[in-house]
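input
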Amino acid sequence: MPRYLRKNAVLAVLLLAGGLYFISHLSTGPTRSNEHNPYELSWQTERFVRKESWVDQGDYLPLNVSYKLLAGAPSIQQRYLSVGMSSINRKKGSYLIPTLQSLFGQSSSEERSAMVVVVLLADFDTRWRVATVREIKTAFASELEQGELVVIHVPEDWYPPLIGLKRNYNDSPQRVSFRSKQNLDYSFLIHYSASLAQYYIQLEDDVSSAHNFLTTIRKHVGEQEAKKTTWAMLEFSALGYIGKLYKSTHLPLLARFLFLFYQEMPCDWLMSHFRELLTQKETIVFKPSLFQHMGTFSSFKGTYNKLKDKDFEEGLYANPAAEVYSDMSTYKKHIPKNAWEAGEEFFWGRAPEKGNYLTVVLTIPAVVTEIFVETGSGGKDLLESAQVELGHDVTIENSEKTCKAFQSVGTVVSGRFEMHEVNKKYNSASSCLRIQVTGGQRDWVIIKKIRITTGLSTPPRQAEV
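output
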């Protein structure tokens, strides 16, 4: 036999032997303990696979993990949205139950039937998991029965090493272990959720939700899809890994991405790299935000955390019906009513002069309990000098509605005005709210939002952002 043929034959045998060895190790996986734990109320379950992703079709980068189903059962019928969150035993109290109450309480029956919430109890403390499952079963029996809520767990021996990891960014070993485990928690959670719905949104276990958030998400997703442009992630909150929405067909890739690079950096940094790898170069952020961080203490060592999303609005249409007028020169389509209505639009006027105004005339007079006014954008175009007033007795002047009499409730400071319990000082029904300019300025002005709560609101909401 010629020498080059002998070399090729030897190479082929070596490749075949190596391939068989690799496949055998992938198929068997690591040895897992089958010991029964008397405290665990669960049974083994496997993730549904719909074969919609080329990753799952070809079994590329196998993610070897098995789940324990602790409560509920996912529906065979795919839903519109899966909502994923991971929860661990916090040293200073849990926010999980209030978070779930907000998700379901802010949704209509139709919205709840279109989504499934997946909770990964990611703590290895069995007693805590059993107690938490019992609490969830008591509070959300209907949601569990309807397939709207699923609670799962991944045993510790399915996790790769969590100690002795690289100390990138000079983080402490404890911090590296914490954030690395969080990446793995999210990887397993996302992997499980991949086939449950058309879209997936990532939350944390200490957030509150805006009213009818799913309907708003569906609206924005529809608009984004209509543009026929490439996108990998839509953001419905500016904070961390909260409110990040993905197409479910991308989830197998995302789960493996988080798993492969779990010790490199925090999850919110990894997600930005994943978005860019899927050729979405710029963030796509929708305002107002639909989710607000409500936790006071971090899940890492229980440290104090006051992080809030300034663009969150709990009630997207909390303001009562009204007409809005202004004598300030309006720039293009940035009309005065934009400041009153929920959404990303705003009022933009050319340099105001002393005496200019923006007046809101309520359709139905009401007792005002809270007022919030925000001006400017990025520290520019702030309203420098103005007072906020309430008025009564509607009249018409120069073809515009206004009020016969106004009284000041306070002044705008650094472009903002916020007042609570307004009714304790002004307890009669008001028909108008006016922002009166008290000094001219060279800069233009943006009135970003005006939000009020009235005694007639049901339930009353003040949507500060």
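quick obs: Residues 20-31, 296-305, 456-465 have pLDDT under 50 and may be disordered.
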